[in-house]
Design goal:
Layout lengths: L1 E10 L4 H11 L4 E8 L5 E10 L1 H13 L3 E6 L5 E12 L3 H14 L2 E5 L3 E8 L1 H14 L2 E13 L7
Antiparallel strand pairs: 1-3, 1-4, 2-3, 5-7, 5-8, 6-7
Length: about 160
């Protein structure tokens, strides 16, 4: 069992997201991440999906997705060079001036933006890889008592060169 990544080009119509997610829930496949957005063509959306599965199950998933009328193209991103990022907001609450300075230092080290700041709180906006976001969360948990995390799913695109991941 390992994380597998799929990109789907689908018709941009009402109910397509429900049909795709319904396929996963109906077969008891657990989605780790799902993002969707329109492409350069307003009639087409692209989904980036992460599912944890074995080889056999993953092949079944791809075949079932390919059979759906609304699916234009299925791309297996699991073993190809890609660029992938996920968005994360981290709100650090109930902190003093010294801790706010520490948040700014962490933001600088991780190369993320301080999106908002108050007298006793700060918010970071992160567009990092899943691994790097996990590292940031662990650091924030170790340094601060009250944090709130909101994560979006990852988006990915095939790399132009072969040296990416």
């Amino acid at each position: 069992m390992k994380n597998r990544w799929i990109a789907l080009y689908v018709e941009n119509q009402v109910g397509v997201l429900a049909k795709v997610s319904g396929l996963f829930s109906g077969k008891s496949y657990n989605l780790q991440s799902l993002t969707v957005g329109t492409t350069e063509d307003p009639t087409v959306s692209r989904m980036t999906i992460c599912v944890t599965s074995d080889d056999v199950t993953f092949e079944q998933i791809k075949k079932q997705l390919n059979r759906m009328v609304e699916v234009i193209k299925v791309i297996d991103l699991t073993n190809v060079p890609i660029h992938m990022k996920e968005i994360l907001f981290a709100k650090i609450k109930n902190i003093d001036a010294r801790q706010i300075e520490e948040v700014f230092h962490i933001a600088q080290v991780f190369n993320v933006q301080v999106a908002d700041i108050g007298t006793d709180s700060a918010m970071l906006e992160c567009k990092l890889t899943e691994r790097r976001n996990n590292e940031l969360i662990e650091l924030l948990k170790s340094k601060f008592q009250c944090i709130e995390i909101v994560r979006g799913g990852a988006v990915a695109i095939e790399a132009i060169s072969t040296s990416c991941r």
